[in-house]
Amino acid sequence: MTETVDVVLIGGGIMSATLGAFLHELQPDWKITAIERLSDVAEESSNAFNNAGTGHSALCELNYTPQAADGSIDISKAISINEQFQLSRQFWSSLVERGVLSDPDTFINTTPHMTFVRGEKNVDFLKRRYELLKQQTLFADMEYSEDSRVINTWAPLLMQERLKADEPFAATRVSGGTDVDFGSLTRQLFAQLSADGVEVRTDTEVRNLKRQKDGTWQVKYRRTIGRAPGRINARFVFVGAGGWALKLLQKSGIPEIKGYGCFPIGGQWLQTTDPKVVAAHHAKVYSKATVGAPPMSVPHLDTRVVDGEASVLFGPFATFSPKFLKNGSMWDLVTQVRFSNIFSMLKVAFTNFDLIRYLFSELAKNHHRKVDDLRELMPSARDEDWKLLQAGQRAQVMHQGQLKFGTEVVAHSDGSIAGLLGASPGASTAVPIMLTLLKTCFPDQFASWEPKIRELIPTYGQSLNDQPALALQTLTGTAQDLKIAL
Fold first, then answer.
1. Selection from 111, 137, 115 nearest residue 484 by Cα
2. Which of 167, 150, 240 is nearest to 159 (CA)?
3. pLDDT, tens digit (0-9, with 9 covering 90-100), for 157-198
4. Other residues' Cβ atoms within 10 Å of the Cβ of residue 124
5. Which InterPro entries match (predicted)?
6. Of 62, 150, 367, 486, which has the most beta carbons under 10 Å away?
């Protein structure tokens, strides 16, 4: 007889870990099983070097403050992203207090967030962006400067060997930004779930999802070692399998996945562990994206702290593979094609020539040309100090003829199965994304869960940006709990 559990989490990344942590807190009597095809959790997109590690809060990312044709700047998305990240911080803070997470410096560290631009138009844009954001409660600590001496104190590598006669430049800075090791965070969450009785099956690949007459979902899997097949029934299934979420949701047959497609984009970093370079840089510095580049390819020069070791990364540089996961299949791009999505994907292909040109230009770059790109931010960079590091694989969402940015929850109308598609800001906003999923898929239970949710996230349902006193109290509290700067 096939075993039946309450919840199956497919994929061992930050999304499944976050949802599992929520469900275990909200409904500790439920039986939960997590399934991961690799030999350990957090080895795909959640692995520290497979993502930027930025605590995405719109402090430095220009794509969250788009400029309209008339020159106006929309800051609404920046405020929304920052609000969402504050929910994640509060949740992590509560889990630290409960002993679920270890010392905060094992997964989060204070790293100033900066934006650096060059050229009159970009300087004008950055200054107006700063003036708008500075008025907002969540961005009140933002600083702005066009003075090389000031910027040199913020991030010396930006100014070393930069000619005074160069085009104008400017920077913004928020000292209370963060660098997050989502791999460590994910492993800690799963370790605690496992200790509390949640079964975590690694080396197990889900092959199919089929609805049963009793309303449960039969999850068919195969062990990657020995190839032994198996099956388990679940009352609720979450597909948090990165790029493979599309493939599995297609196999489930739910109508909500029709029309969706994915375009895979890989990435590489330039990395240095040179002590002099690492010691001279303590910031995440984002710049302006190349024309046609997707938001996740905005160039940035980052301090990274992984397993207690610091390095500096620059990138990402786009690569191409038909795989939807770093450890995916070469057939992923082809096998996703359905009659319901092929015309939508063709429309995206014919209306995004800038993206195609960008990918070709990235693929043509050798090591020297990649370091040349780095020299736009860090003029003193030397080819021999930097090595290439393969980053993660992203499956960019396509739907109804549009290339979609961000993350999307796709859920069946009865709430019995849901999955997550998309990329940035992704991991940083895992907590609000999973709260939305819980409200969508468990409407009958959610009202009874809300008191517990507010224990874990005191400001849930409120806007910090509209309440300066509450914002200060909340930010101060979480900063103290997570041992990060305000």
1. 111
2. 150
3. 999 998 766 789 999 999 999 999 999 999 999 999 999 999
4. 14
5. FAD/NAD-bd_sf, MQO
6. 62
Extract the tokens encoding 437. Answer: 């999923």
Q: Look-up: residue for tokens 């060997």?
A: 161
Specify the amino acid at residue 164.
K
Q: Considering only residues 448 and 348, tell me which one the structure prediction assigns the higher pLDDT.
A: 448
Alpha carbon distance 30, 239 (integer Å):
18
Q: Which pairs from 21-26 meet CB under 8 Å and 24+ separation?
A: 21/95, 21/100, 21/189, 21/192, 21/193, 22/434, 22/435, 22/438, 23/438, 24/193, 24/196, 24/198, 25/452, 25/456, 26/438, 26/445, 26/449, 26/452, 26/453
Nearest CA to 482 out of 139, 190, 179, 278 is that of 179
Task: Report the distance separating Cα 82 and Cα 298, nearest Å.
Answer: 18
The residue type found at 119 is G
Measured distance CA(356)–CA(42) in Å, rounded: 30
Q: Rounded to a whole number, what is the distance in angstroms from the first to the last CA of the chain? A: 54
Helix or strand run (H / E) with residue 456? helix 443-456
DSSP code for 352: -
How do the domains of the chain map onto residue ranges?
A: 4-468
Q: How far apart are CA 225 and CA 486, in angstroms?
A: 47
**CA angle centred on 478, ends 472 and 482, rounded to 5°:** 145
Name the nearest CA neighbour of 9 among 84, 332, 98, 22: 22
CA distances from 486 to 80, 206, 476, 480 (A): 19, 43, 6, 8
Contacts with 405 (C-beta within 8 Å, 6 or more apart), sequence order:
63, 294, 295, 396, 422, 423, 424
pLDDT tens per residue across span 240-261: 998 899 999 999 999 999 999 9
Torsional sign, CA 97, 102, 103, 106 = negative
Q: Are 388 and 367 in contact (CB under 8 A)?
A: yes
Q: Which two tokens stand for residue 46?
A: 């959640």
Which three-class secondary structure string do you get for 230-247?
EEEEEEEEEECCCCHHHH
Which stretches within 103-198 are classed as H helix? 120-133, 148-154, 156-159, 182-195
Name 26's Cβ contacts closer than 8 Å, sequence gap at least 6: 438, 445, 449, 452, 453
The β-bridge partners of 403 are 398
State the Cα–Cα distance between residues 223 and 25, nearest whole angstrom.
Answer: 29
Cα Rg for the chain, rounded, in angstroms? Answer: 22
Here the contacts of 205-210 (C-beta below 8 Å, separation 24 or greater) are 205/37, 206/10, 206/35, 206/37, 206/241, 206/248, 208/251, 209/237, 209/239, 209/248, 209/249, 209/251, 209/252, 209/417, 210/252
Class of domain 4-468: alpha beta
What confidence tens digit (pLDDT) does each residue in 280-316 have?
Answer: 999 999 998 766 565 556 899 999 988 888 999 999 9
